[in-house]
Design goal:
alpha/beta, four-stranded antiparallel β-sheet, seven-stranded mixed β-sheet, 520 residues, 16 helices
Length: 520
């Protein structure tokens, strides 16, 4: 039906405005459920591009299925739309909480059961979300046909739909998750779906059958989600304490990661996105092995750069050298450096190294920061999390190591933490191959850290590695006599042929996922 000439100039009614606003809210809620499911899959099953991709793929398929199913809704459009909104609000809003709870209750190794629930919920929520927009368009067309032709209708609805998706895509990592957390974010947006249902209940009260039943359903759904919102903090604490197995003393989501610190009889542990970063009972083995060979081989380093390592442990080891005049720590997440500088118990673990007058803390992306700098350093310590996704994988590429080479003094050494050469053998040697591809001489070595198992490191320089003849006093693990054992690789960790990890292929991320995925 064509739009009458005068209709375009008529001011929209309140009902039209509220319905178009509901499209905005619907789009925002739908994207939140999609992002929350992807984030939870990565958080609970491994920080992986695979998890996010499969969740999004299933969700989009389900939305298409829902859109197709909407064609079979022929009567009581408003009533069906209202029911769909309530179902989306309750199921989608409670999905993060349910997944957290079930994952905590399942015994270790029951990943299959959790995946079935995850993808089942994603399929259900996606199908319901796919029903929403076609129903709204048909309601608008049915009630306001004099104002909307097909062209105008599609344009208006999709404009509000995409605008809602854009704002949530920006707010989800920057505001919602850091301030509310995944569980409360899901519940809060579930309540917004209930609000849309209440709008529909009021706007079309004159034509709705079973008005009281719909009103009761809205009330019950709202009360259920409000009760869940009030109990969200307790649920999250209970689920995470079951997941980590120890008392949680700190937990917070930054725009970059979920940081959890636990404290038990055996000591303090740090987790980033569910992955153990250190245990206070044996972290000295890891950090001495990471830092000491490069520092001692140089002999008298003055300027040192640390990339990653926001916990300050690597800086602690560096400051054991009197020759050090200046240390620059580049850590993406300011929450990490603030936490380990200002929390007394955590600052004691790094000997208050983050408060040293020799230290400059820079909260920035290491890749971009190196591109903008011209300084050179005697030692560069690279202590990033493992390459479990493309955002981290870029920090293990030839392009990144070329930047490292440009900032390395002629007689300097760089050292890279490089996952386990036993469990992730091809991943380890991929890093070695990539460093060599940019013209650096490599010296791979490994150390046993009980919390991690056998762990690998790679020294890189423009000259052959010169074995140190002395280390600072007071070290608990690294020593001159024990160094040859660290450099020796038994047959099950010996070098294997690997490709260079480049920005254009990121082969390391896939290799890493395959090798560690076979263990879990």
């Amino acid at each position: 039906m064509s739009t009458p000439p005068h209709a375009e100039h008529r001011r929209p009614s309140l009902a039209e405005v509220l319905l178009l606003a509901s499209v905005f809210v619907i789009a925002a809620c739908g994207l939140v459920y999609e992002l929350a499911a992807g984030a939870l899959a990565s958080y609970l099953l491994g920080d992986s591009v695979l998890q996010f991709s499969t969740v999004i793929g299933v969700y989009l398929f389900a939305m298409g299925l829902g859109s197709w199913l909407s064609r079979f809704v022929e009567r009581q459009l408003v009533g069906v739309f209202l029911q769909v909104e309530l179902l989306v609000g309750v199921v989608g809003g409670l999905m993060p909480a349910a997944l957290f709870a079930v994952h905590s209750l399942l015994p270790p190794g029951e990943g299959t059961a959790f995946r079935v629930l995850l993808y089942g919920l994603v399929l259900l929520v996606g199908t319901l979300v796919g029903l929403e927009i076609p129903l709204v368009m048909r309601i608008l067309k049915h009630h306001f046909s004099a104002r909307y032709g097909l062209k105008d209708l599609v344009s208006q609805v999709l404009t509000f739909d995409y605008l809602g998706a854009l704002l949530v895509a920006l707010a989800f990592p920057l505001v919602l998750v850091p301030q509310l957390g995944l569980v409360r974010t899901g519940i809060a947006f579930g309540l917004l779906n209930v609000v849309v249902a209440v709008w529909a209940l009021w706007l079309f009260r004159a034509e709705l059958r079973l008005h009281q039943a719909h009103a009761a359903a809205c009330l019950l759904s709202g009360l259920l989600l409000l009760a869940a919102l009030l109990g969200a903090e307790h649920l999250t604490s209970w689920a995470e304490e079951r997941f980590y197995g120890e008392h949680i003393v700190f937990k917070q989501s930054s725009p970059y990661q979920r940081i959890v610190v636990t404290d038990g009889r055996a000591g303090t542990r740090l987790f980033l996105n569910g992955n153990l970063q250190f245990h206070s009972k044996d972290e000295y083995r890891y950090h001495e092995a990471l830092v000491q060979p490069a520092m001692a081989a140089h002999g008298a380093p003055k300027r040192v750069l640390v990339l990653g390592g926001g916990d300050g442990m690597a800086v602690r080891e560096i400051l054991k050298y009197a020759s050090v005049e200046h240390v620059t720590l580049v850590e993406l997440d300011p929450l990490m450096t603030t936490l380990f500088r200002d929390t007394p118990k955590l600052a004691a673990l790094n000997d208050h190294s983050l408060s040293s007058p020799k230290l400059r803390i820079v909260n920035a992306d290491a890749f971009g920061w190196l591109e903008q700098q011209k300084d050179s350093f005697d030692v560069i310590v690279i202590d990033f999390p493992d390459p479990s996704n493309f955002a981290l994988g870029k920090l293990y590429t030839a392009s990144f190591y070329e930047l490292v080479d440009q900032h390395l003094a002629a007689a300097g050494y760089a050292v890279v933490q490089t996952t386990s050469p036993l469990i992730a053998r091809r991943s380890f040697w991929t890093v070695v191959t990539t460093l060599e591809a940019v013209g650096l001489t490599t010296t791979p070595y490994h150390a046993h850290v009980p919390s991690f198992g056998e762990w690998g490191f790679v020294l890189a320089s423009r000259r052959p590695f010169r074995r140190p003849t002395q280390f600072p006093p007071g070290l608990r693990f690294v020593s001159v006599p024990s160094l040859p054992a660290l450099l020796d690789f038994p047959p099950d960790m010996a070098r294997v042929p690997t490709d260079v990890n480049r920005l254009s292929n990121q082969v390391l991320v896939q290799t890493f996922e395959e090798e560690w995925g076979a263990v879990h």
